[in-house]
Amino acid sequence: MKTLLAALFCGFLFGFGLIISGMTNPARVLNFLDWSARWDPTLAFVMGGAIAVALPGFHWLRKREKPLYSSHFELPAKRKIDAKLVFGAGLFGIGWGIAGLCPGPAVVAAATLDSDLLLFFAAMVSGMVAQHWFFNQKLNKNAR
Length: 144
Description:
single chain; globular
């Protein structure tokens, strides 16, 4: 139960930060990517602030033997940069650049019930489900 409450708290804190910083507004992100007269540096300050807050936390965590609410750390096993990672990162970046939203802000923005944001959210979830289904099918075929 502690783990669920901690995750819920962190999710609300993250969502609140996105709202306060304006990152749930796609125009902010798109204006950051537009280097014309409308350029908005807000996203750079939000990223810089996030890094400044996260770095000491990661440093502190590396000294611990285990997380607060689990018996072990769950770190990615793969460290290799492969075609799947590069393709996924590229697709993520293109989607972010076109829509001005990435998954975190999209979930928070969907709560506004704006039809454009709900459409983006539905497309994002559909893409996640399709990717999960496709790669599970591929893994099942390779296992045979």
